[in-house]
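TICKET: design request
STATUS: open
ATTACHED STRUCTURE:
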């Protein structure tokens, strides 16, 4: 078997294991999930599981890492879009991965995932703001603005997930894009004020 087919097969196997874990974690605590029940759910042999993972927690870590990689790719690929279009891409990802997002935003490991997510988006946020903030872009205050802004945004997303996505997706996009635009405008105006001093 050539490397391309083997790589495709590995990705398919891992995706099946991820999906099985997501489904099982919607029903029970991760500590109650056995490799046997997981592999039966994924229709994959136990030896195949152990060829990739040490245990269920290792699989969960890989699931989180995969989401972080996909989101980092989405941020990088769409960073130059207008705010509304940029946030639509991100909300489409959530909409297309509802069960996964229920787990990550509201499950027992949500706080760890949200801390990683905050770090990922903070880097993008600071890069965006420093583009028009000049020297002030490296100021410690920006990190505080980013924490405030991101934690508020993620709280809104968490509420949306918690409500089973009842609020219209386009309204979520509009609200968060609008808030992002307002804080960027505020920071730009603050920079102008500092420059005039």
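STATUS: resolved
RESOLUTION: sequence designed for all positions
ATTACHED SEQUENCE:
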């Amino acid at each position: 078997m050539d490397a391309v087919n083997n790589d495709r097969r590995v990705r398919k196997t891992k995706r099946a294991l991820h999906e099985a874990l997501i489904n099982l974690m919607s029903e029970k605590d991760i500590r109650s999930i056995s490799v046997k029940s997981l592999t039966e759910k994924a229709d994959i042999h136990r030896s195949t599981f152990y060829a990739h993972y040490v245990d269920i927690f290792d699989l969960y870590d890989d699931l989180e890492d995969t989401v972080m990689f996909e989101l980092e790719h989405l941020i990088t690929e769409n960073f130059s879009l207008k705010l509304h279009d940029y946030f639509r891409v991100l909300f489409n990802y959530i909409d297309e991965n509802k069960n996964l997002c229920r787990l990550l935003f509201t499950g027992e490991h949500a706080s760890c995932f949200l801390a990683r997510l905050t770090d990922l988006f903070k880097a993008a946020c600071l890069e965006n703001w420093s583009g028009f903030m000049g020297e002030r872009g490296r100021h410690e205050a920006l990190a505080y603005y980013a924490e405030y802004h991101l934690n508020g945004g993620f709280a809104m997303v968490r509420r949306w997930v918690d409500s089973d996505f009842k609020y219209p997706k386009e309204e979520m996009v509009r609200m968060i894009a609008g808030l992002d635009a307002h804080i960027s405008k505020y920071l730009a105006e603050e920079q102008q004020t500092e420059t005039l001093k």
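CLOSING REMARK: The mean pLDDT is 89. The radius of gyration is 20 Å.
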